[in-house]
Design goal:
By secondary structure, the protein is α/β, with parallel strands linked by helices. Among the domains are: 50 residues, Roll (Urease, subunit C, domain 1), CATH 2.30.40; 116 residues, Diaminopimelate Epimerase, Chain A, domain 1 (Roll), CATH 3.10.310.70. It is built from 20 helices and 23 strands. An 8-stranded parallel beta sheet has the order 8-14-15-16-17-18-19-20, sandwiched between helices. Strand 15, helix 11 and strand 16 form a beta-alpha-beta unit. InterPro entries: Amidohydro_3, Metal-dep_hydrolase_composite, Metal_Hydrolase, YtcJ-like. Keywords: Signal.
Length: 555
């Protein structure tokens, strides 16, 4: 058989007949090609896959690096369609709270950092944690934080839309009992009017964010981003969408690209909250030198809040001490010019031929952005080729899903409920919480879905995300809406070829096929061959980007 293959290769084009630089053999390789085939070997040369199966074996030459998989499973490099990679890096020096389990644990961590911090300097925690993991199931109050950090302002972000601070931080921000509720945000107050230190949604959190110390110098930021990339590589992630960057952050990525220090392919979406910011984001991407490791992706628009601020058709529940307005329906983040300004911005994005990804959590918001996308589709032509997308898509209505499928509007789904399910139940009630991010229904409606994590809002482990997709489990131990679970094969598709399609990169990424870029992950177990409950135990033993090993452990 081998001699026959060699004879055939002798008649093949010269490029194919050349020996491979790297050969992975004796494995179970899920290619994620159109037929979702499985093969035993793959050959790599010049950063691309050149052959699979027996044809790959025939390309082994004297100088070929051979990696014997020993029966292990390999898959395409994982693509996360929503990772705040820069923020992941900035979180690394902060106080880590993900493994705390009580208010006392949180206070101990904050107190330890405060004792090592000069009086008056800020104590800042990582955003990667959630009060659902605490026995008390709530955020610490300003007074509790004061007890361990009386001489330092304390800032504890939780995800991207909620913060808890102490009295010194409130004082620096000028927030008192007399401060009115800001547009697009909520200052949580006691019955006597005193702020508790909890701030919800951008309009309120910005009051403190604007008095925080500046970010570290650019060289330190670049170092931290490379650390974040290494952590992503160790999780099997080879490509991400960085959603909502500024020109300064774009400059950091360009520097990393020019220095050859990028190990995660990164698509950039410029953040916009006004029509003018959309125009600036479009201009920033004009003439951008696209590179295999760094590309522009379009514009991100934040249209509502998170679990505590997604704009709803029906009111939220009363949450004593946190949400006491019986008619509260969340926050809608339209620009000063309202829908007309946003619509004109969408038209500009369409004319520029760019993608728009809109953050939309509540059912009201999803209905609204679907309607506006549809209006642009009617006026200027199909949005389908531009791959316009709804981010997060927590509570889509059936009419919105039908319209998305008709227009070719895509969606990105993340594993927020693994941590945020606690507040979904408290703020929305069990019915809405169980329905949240109904991937089964979204796929069945014919909507194209890409998978991701939204790290560091929630952990960036793609295998934990796929575990949630297939079990609807949470870190609190219960399941929310198991009827909306999908199969392991579908979950893997969301993280590979589906995300490549969402990026317009399906000709290069998302599957193990000759001609595509050699991004690949070797796994500790076959995630398609174990029970869904065990998927989160999966680890990346080897990660390759463009045929180069960027992570290796245990292989």
């Amino acid at each position: 058989m081998r001699s026959l293959l060699l004879a055939l290769l002798a008649l093949a084009p010269p490029a194919l007949a050349q020996p491979a630089e790297t050969l992975l053999r004796n494995g179970r390789i899920h290619t994620q090609d159109a037929t979702e085939s499985t093969t035993t070997a793959v050959a790599i040369r010049d950063g691309r896959f050149v052959a699979t199966g027996a044809a790959a074996e025939a390309l082994a030459g004297p100088a070929t690096t051979v990696i014997d998989l020993g029966g292990r499973t390999a898959i395409p490099g994982l693509i996360d369609s929503h990772v705040h990679q820069h923020q992941w890096g900035m979180n690394l020096p902060a106080v880590q709270l993900l493994d705390t389990r009580s208010i006392a644990d949180v206070l101990a961590r904050i107190g330890e950092r405060a004792r090592a911090t000069p009086p008056g300097d800020w104590v800042i925690a990582s955003s990667l944690w959630h009060e659902s993991i605490l026995a008390e199931g709530r955020l610490p109050t300003r007074w509790e934080l004061d007890s361990v950090a009386p001489n330092n302002p304390v800032f504890i972000p939780r995800g991207g839309h909620v913060v808890a601070v102490n009295s010194q931080a409130l004082a620096r921000a000028g927030v008192t009992r007399d401060t009115p509720q800001p547009a697009g945000g909520v200052i949580v107050k006691r019955e006597d009017g005193e702020p508790t230190g909890v701030l919800l949604i951008a309009g309120a959190t910005a009051l403190v964010r604007r008095v925080l110390p500046p970010p570290p110098p650019i060289p330190e930021q670049t170092r931290l981003v490379t650390e974040a990339m290494r952590e992503l590589n160790a999780l099997g992630v080879t490509t991400v969408v960085e959603p909502g960057i500024t020109d300064e952050i774009a400059g950091i990525y360009r520097e990393l690209r020019d220095q050859g220090r990028m190990t995660v392919r990164t698509w950039l979406l410029w953040r916009a909250a006004t029509g003018e910011q959309i125009r600036r984001g479009i201009a920033a991407q004009s003439g951008w030198p696209q590179h295999p490791m760094l590309r522009t992706g379009g514009i991100k628009w934040l249209l509502d809040g998170g679990v505590e601020g997604g704009r709803m058709n029906d009111p939220y529940r009363i949450v004593p001490g946190e949400q006491t307005n019986p008619d509260y329906r969340g926050i809608l983040l339209l620009p000063a010019g309202g829908e007309p300004e946003l619509l004109e911005g969408l038209r500009a994005i369409h004319r520029a031929g760019l993608q728009i990804q809109t953050h939309a959590v509540g059912d009201y918001t999803i209905d609204l952005i679907t309607r506006l996308y549809g209006q642009v589709d009617r006026e200027l032509g199909p949005v389908r080729p531009l791959r316009w997308t709804v981010m997060h898509i927590f509570l889509p209505t059936p009419p919105a899903l039908a319209e998305m499928a008709r227009l070719g509007i895509m969606a990105t789904a993340q594993n927020h409920p693994v941590l945020l399910g606690h507040n979904q139940r408290r703020w929305w009630g069990d019915e809405r919480a169980a329905y949240s991010i109904p991937i089964r229904r979204i796929l069945d409606a014919g909507v194209h879905v890409g998978g991701g994590t939204d790290a560091p809002v929630v952990p960036g482990d793609p295998f934990q995300s796929m575990w949630w997709m297939t079990t609807r489990g949470t870190l609190a131990g219960y399941r929310l809406g198991p009827e909306h679970a999908i199969t392991p094969r579908e979950a893997l598709r969301l993280y590979t070829i589906n995300n490549a399609v969402l990026l317009g990169a399906e000709a290069e990424l998302g599957s193990i096929e000759p001609g595509k870029r050699a991004d690949l992950v070797v796994l500790s177990q076959d995630l398609l061959g174990v029970e869904p409950e065990r998927i989160r135990e999966t680890r990346a033993l080897l990660t390759m980007v463009g045929g180069q090993v960027v992570h290796r452990r245990g292989l």
